[in-house]
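re: that chain from earlier
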Amino acid sequence: MQISIQKDYFKQAVQEVMYAISNKPTIPILSGIKVAVDVNGVTLTGGNSDIVIQRVIPAIVEEEVIVQVYKEGSAVVPGKYFSEIIKKLPGDIFIEADEALHVTVQSKEIITTMNGYDPEEYPALPPMDESSIVIVPGGELVEMVKQTAFASAKAESRPVLSGVHISVQGSELALVATNAQRLALRRTFVETEWESACIVPSKTLLDLAKLLQHSSTVKMAISDNYILFQSESLLLLSRLIEGNYPNIENLFPNEAKSVIASNRKNLLLGVDRASLFASEWRHNTISLAVKNGRQLKISSKSTAVGKIEEVQMIEMLDGEEELEIMLDGRYLLEALKAIKEEKVVLSFHGSIRPVLVQPFGDDKHLHLISPVRS
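^ sequence. v structure.
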């Protein structure tokens, strides 16, 4: 193997595959990055027992030569040291690997030699069923992940809740995350007759969202134990979380006692201000109160500091003109940040039932937040 490559492209790709490399791998070779070279460019692979990330660097990008291939081949280099030295090199990089598994990395007058692993011993990717592929616009998939994954449970006392439930059913792709106190749901249309469902670690999906920023389309396939995402230059394979995800269909109340519409940015800023005084409470409790059918009072209090309250005008109200509910301010704030539309709708179903938050006129993006019992 023998190549020269532009530093910026290579450094970025190395950093991305390092997401998948564990500090204490179960198999020593998984501490390394596999570098495979052919006439089309360079493929970098990093992985552990739960996730594999593969990044392709094409030889030519928009008529610019990125990789000069002098000799095809492959090598596995120590991931930690390789990534660190690549970050610290001053310019374009020359890499060579000999038959004794010695890997030489050179940039200008700096030469580093490392002992590599046998690439033939690097684990192969598990087979995936090509007939069960769903194609999703890359930008939309990234947005769906960002609008749901944050709502998953941080603790792993219930492992299924630490993941995002992904389902394909009736030409609809749905992502759902919940920690049993709040829930985020995002749906979109996909062209497929294939149906399946799985639970994916939320951290894996958040890493995927970072890696897919410039991808136009993404292929997704689910097997019994893995989910695969593949774009033009990225492959991410993740092990699934085993278990049964809660049935969410009965969580959404049918009839609201009161529905209001508000400016999202104004409401977000108001909740953010109220949350300053809510931090001493276990659930960061704030109060939302509809007054006279025209106003929404947002407030919180602290025994040590004092209280804060403000009144905002409601743009629309349907139903009861007086109500009050206590919510976790962090959950409402995160839901409002996940919504991008100018106007939001809040549906209230009583003081002890969850509040439904969604963009105005959009039932494909929903958030449920359980009230705080005072």
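The mean pLDDT is 93.
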